[in-house]
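Please check this today:
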Amino acid sequence: MVQALLAYMAIVSIVLLVMMGMDKSRAKKHEWRIAERTLFTLAIAGGAVGGVLGMYLFRHKTRHNSFAFGFPLLAAIQIFIIVQLWGSSL
């Protein structure tokens, strides 16, 4: 169960990381952007770690307080949940 949840969160994190990179690239080219709601939905759905990595790897959305505080907070909560589930499954 915990391994499945961890795999799910890893996949969603990778998807969000890639989307953050795509959005940054589109921003530089003044092209159509990925909605912030979509990015937050993926973060809430388990991809916050990938969102945080994407923020700092691509230097994207780091000036937006909702992202700068929201993504790390969500990531901490998600990591806490995984650690708690992992500990209880031993």
Notes: Residues 2-28 form the longest helix (27 residues).
